Amino acid sequence: MDIDGMILVSIDDHVIEPPDLFERHMPESRRAEAPRVVHREDGVDRWVFQGLDVGPTGLGAVATWPKHEWSMDPVGFAEMRPGSYDIHERVRDMNVNGLLASMCFPTFAGFAGTWLAQAPDRELTNVAISAYNDWHIDEWCGSYPGRFLPLAIGPLWDRDALVAEIRRVAAKGCRAITLPETPYGVGLPSFYTDEWDPVFKALCDEDVAVCMHIGGAFNLLQRPEGAPHDQLIIMSPQLSAVATTDLMVSGTFNRFPDLRVALSEGGIGWIPFMLDRVDRHIVNQSWTGLDLGGLTATELFRKNFLGCFITDPSALHLAERIGIEALAWECDYPHSDSTWPRSPELLMQELQAAHLSDEAIAAITWENACRFFRFDPFAHRSRDEATVGALRALAPDVDTSETPKAVYRARYEARHAAA
Fold first, then answer.
1. Which H helix or E strand runs over 182?
2. Cα separation, 146 vs 18, whole angstroms
3. Which of 35, 89, 109, 231 sits CB 3.0–4.6 Å from 227 for a disulfide?
4. What's the DSSP call for residue 152?
5. Partners of 148 in the β-ladder
6. What is the DSSP letter of 224?
């Protein structure tokens, strides 16, 4: 397979929510109470809701910045690449990367919606969450049909409202929702209780998959004093193994055998070891009585999980061990781990180094994601129009050169002055 003939679907990118998000989607009677962006004197934009600072705007949005300007600090809209928050520029940035379709996780709301969902006035919070989902599904994804896989958030501290929201967004065609990977890490009941059973039932009834993005389990780490950012960045994907263990040994899949879980940005290097460990554990530690519904851990993983990676050169040599059908790729635009705008080249290099067949490459780069999330990649364009080469041909004028924050700020100020 040549690079121009590849088809790419990324199931982990991020949207920096535009400041006018709630203006068209919050009910008029509650619009004055909607989350709003506040521009601070230090140039950082923050979202404020119910009197609380509920999340940053541009956390990690470093696309095309020189690396010496990268940091963990939030920034304002003026310093970001416009494709981070502008849907039209986002599609242009997708085209220049040869990316057909993208699933975009929240930023200010929290990767699992936790920052927005924890606001104290539950009734108002639930209204804001529904407005967020309407914006994401109808406006962000709906502006370019066939280019985005909708992803909902939920009112996590209100189980009945969460079930109702799952059913509501499913009726709008959304087939994915983001939930905390380890809910007890954010103050919610664990999967070892029955608190999530009505939620899982609704997900199975409505054919909606769960995305568990790294981040919620950070609170489980007791970080040593003086530990730099490096420690958390390196450790974070390994925490997906904790979420997978919880789901497997809690009996969740015994009760809900059709539940589908994507381990977003969790990488895949830890998976072979874990599957070996649990497969042997079931036999060797039979005294515990662990039952995965009559399946081995390997069989369960291949049936119910999707392992997601940005770059994992060693693990791809063990793709057959994990299960080709249980692997999918991510771009992570506009974050620092992203391979944009050279994703096709970097990904193909790793896939070919692992000696994977064209059939396996197609499964990993788009087929598995589309099957898992019930997404038809050719509903709005032909297969020939969906390739890396065809999409890049639409974006010859997109500038991907290194651009300092100050340059973006000057351009932003000039645009707004002209407007």
1. none
2. 21
3. 231
4. B
5. 102
6. P
Paired tokens of 215: 């981040």
The model's pTM is 0.97
Rounded to 5 degrees, what are φ and ψ at 115?
A: -65, -40
pLDDT in tens, 275-294: 999 999 999 999 999 999 99
The Cα 358–Cα 333 span in angstroms is: 25
d(CA 292, CA 259) in angstroms, rounded, equals 13
Tokens of 360: 């396996």
416 has a pLDDT exceeding 90: no
Whole-angstrom CA distances from 406 to 37, 82, 124, 340, 362 are 21, 14, 38, 21, 40
Please give the torsion angle defined by the CA atoms of residues 400, 404, 408 and 411, in that order, rounded to the nearest 10 degrees.
-100
In order of 6, 31, 161, 172, 348, the CA distances from 378 in angstroms are 14, 38, 34, 19, 22
Structure tokens, 161: 């409202």
The Cα-based distances of 46 to 26, 40, 78, 93, 335 in angstroms read: 19, 8, 13, 25, 18
Phi first, then psi, for residue 382 (nearest 5°) are -75, 165
- CATH number given to 3-16+61-418: 3.20.20.140
Q: How does DSSP classify residue 214?
A: T
